[in-house]
Amino acid sequence: MVHLTLAIADFMKILITAALYAAASAGGLVLLGLCALGGVVWGVRRAFGGRRGE
User: Fold this and answer.
1) What's the CA gap between 36 and 43, in Å, rounded?
2) What is the pTM of this model?
3) CB 3.0-4.6 Å disulfide test: which of 4, 11, 30, 45 passes with 50?
């Protein structure tokens, strides 16, 4: 019985770790995408002049 309890606990640990890893990966991809989008916006503003008259 103890072995079954330990096996279930290990399995739950694996599931929680996988879920946290997936969430961290998704968060990292979102941040990377936002940085890339910011860089594109900055480049467009720089190329076409953010302010009129300059």
Assistant:
1) 10
2) 0.62
3) 45
